[in-house]
Write a structure and sequence with these properties.
Length: 347
């Protein structure tokens, strides 16, 4: 299924699950198919990290443990926005205006995240019963709750436990609340396993907002003020959309490290990161009608040295939030010349 989206500002938004460029009008977009109103997200129940496997799984803890410091640097050169103008003068607080919220619910945009390095084998399990399917949707094998199997390449053939499988399979929970375990971490959504160049790659297919629940907590301490977390959510959403439009690989949009945005599955989700994402759902940074690739880093000096002054300082966002700046003021400070917009289905 192809997802067409637009932003309510006019111009072009290049973002789709098949990277399709679409135009939008200056008026509010309409929805072809009604989208149900979402209930507030809840933190998932995270099973114990140790599963029954035929080979030792990594020993990383799967319990929530937000980092004490933000990532040092995220992403690369901006491609969809001009460089910033001068920061607002001291004592004068600029704020990005938010257009009226459209009546339609913001779309759940799919994103593909590489969550493993190429490896000769992966340990994959599920918190609830799950299925392993081939590309045509035919059942390959089942995974029982709270257990895992080795996914191994033997003689160029993927083998799941004792079951031979095609070289591309999908692991999906049978329950909406189910989580998928991949070599030490738990994830929402589905996981695609691809045999490529003699190695296996795990790719998490998940909707944007669920992805951001983890990114916000991976990139910024969840104990920081909610306005800083909201600023992080909007910056991370805009950055991710830019990479959906310009994917790193035919197989996935971006990776899970600081080279892109840190993403650690549900272990970095907290109540505050869920609130920050849900209360900014569908809001993106825009410039000239396009989504901004909103770079950011831990400090102002890193933003200056690595991103040539374009981007948000996460520590700076924290300091501004502690001075009672709103997320709109924080984003105006770090991304001057941009606007806020709502992501919507295209008519």
């Amino acid at each position: 299924m192809m997802l067409f989206c637009s932003i309510i500002l006019g111009g072009i938004l290049t973002t789709a699950c098949q990277q399709t460029e679409v135009t939008s009008s200056s008026q509010n977009s309409t929805v072809n198919t009604p989208h149900p109103v979402r209930s507030p997200a809840k933190r998932p129940v995270i099973p114990p990290p140790e599963l029954t496997t035929l080979a030792p799984a990594p020993t990383e803890s799967a319990s929530p443990s937000p980092p004490s410091q933000p990532s040092q640097v995220s992403s690369s050169k901006p491609a969809t926005a001009s460089k910033p103008t001068a920061k607002p003068a001291a004592g004068r607080v600029a704020s990005l205006a938010l257009p009226p919220k459209p009546p339609q619910t913001s779309p759940r945009v799919p994103i593909r995240v590489a969550i493993t390095q190429p490896s000769p084998y992966l340990v994959i399990g599920a918190s609830t019963p799950a299925t392993v399917m081939d590309q045509q949707g035919q059942l390959v094998t089942n995974l029982t709750a709270s257990s895992a199997e080795n996914f191994v390449l033997q003689g160029g053939q993927l083998q799941i436990g004792s079951t031979k499988a095609p070289n591309i399979v999908w692991v999906k929970s049978e329950s909406e609340s189910g989580l998928i375990y991949v070599s030490g971490r738990w994830y929402r959504g589905a996981v695609q396993v691809v045999a490529n160049n003699g190695k296996l790659l795990g790719i998490n297919h998940v909707d944007m907002e669920s992805y951001l629940y983890s990114v916000v907590g991976s990139e910024m301490p969840a104990s920081w003020p909610i306005e800083a977390l909201k600023s992080q959510a909007i910056a991370a959403r805009s950055y991710a959309l830019a990479h959906i439009a310009r994917p790193f690989s035919p197989l996935y949009d971006l990776g899970d490290t600081q080279r892109w945005q840190a993403y650690k599955g549900v272990e970095t989700e907290t109540n505050s990161t869920l609130v920050a994402v849900e209360e900014t759902a569908g809001i993106v940074l825009s410039h000239n009608g396009a989504v901004v690739e909103s770079l950011y880093a831990a400090s102002e000096s890193i933003v200056r040295d690595v991103h040539k002054g374009f981007g948000m300082s996460q520590n700076g966002a924290n300091q501004l939030a502690r001075k009672q700046y709103s997320f709109q003021q924080i984003l105006a400070h770090f991304y001057p010349g941009t606007k806020l917009a709502w992501l919507q289905f295209s008519s």
